[in-house]
Amino acid sequence: MNEPARAKTCPSCKRPVGDNAVLCIACGYNLESGYHLRTKSLIRKEGIVGRTHLGTPMRSDLPDSLVKLVSVSKTAGIVCLLMASLALSLAVLMATMPEVATQIHSILPKLRVVILAGPGTLSCILGILALIVSNKAKQGLPAARSLGLLTATLMLLLVPIGALFGLIMLALLLHPNTKRFYR
């Protein structure tokens, strides 16, 4: 008794796909890698006319805590880089313009270029690391958790803003769903 051949379907949206298909055009699921492509529908009066790719694919099986980590670590990275640029700019300004340094020293006598350059450099490094964590977490790579724990712990040194981001990142990285995902 011959059974009729079943059409190949997308495991994500259950719509039919071609026998040699690599990508489901209905939902953006990559049948070989298991990743979803983030897409945006192009809608006109005639209806949906296509989809466009919007950056690095995000795995479809990520827990909510990891999805939140992606956005928090990206925001933390950008904020840290902004803080770094401010601190390093002020350090350069103090080093190159003695009159500015004199005015700043009259307000804060212990403030030195080294005091600004140290946290500025640390903030810059942590900002870059946070952006790397965001990218690795988006892909569900195991390195995201270990690098994220290190970055979040070091961010606690950047009081108050970095510490806030560090605490949020630690809470998301230590969440039971995140731990379960990385087992």
Summary of the model, kept short:
By secondary structure, this protein is mainly alpha-helical.
Tell me what you see in this structure.
The protein has 183 residues and is mainly alpha-helical. The chain folds into two domains: 1-60, no CATH class; 64-181, no CATH class. Helices cover 55% and strands 9% of the residues. The chain contains six helices and four strands. The strands form two sheets. Strands 1-4 form a two-stranded antiparallel ribbon. It is elongated, with a radius of gyration of 24 Å.
Query: How many strand segments?
Result: 4
How much helicity do the residues have?
55-70%
Radius of gyration, rounded? Answer: 24 Å
Mean pLDDT: 83
Characterize the overall form.
elongated
- When the domains are counted, the total is 2
Low-confidence stretches: 42-54
Strand content: 5-15%
Q: Class by helix and strand content?
A: mainly alpha
Q: How many alpha or pi helices? A: 6
Keywords:
single chain, 183 residues, mainly alpha, 2 domains, two-stranded antiparallel ribbon, two-stranded antiparallel sheet, 6 helices, 4 strands, 55% helix
Per-chain topology:
Layout: E1 35-36, E2 39-44, E3 47-53, E4 58-59, H1 64-96, H2 98-107, H3 113-138, H4 143-155, H5 161-173, H6 176-181
Helix pairs in contact: 1-2, 1-3, 1-5, 3-4, 4-5
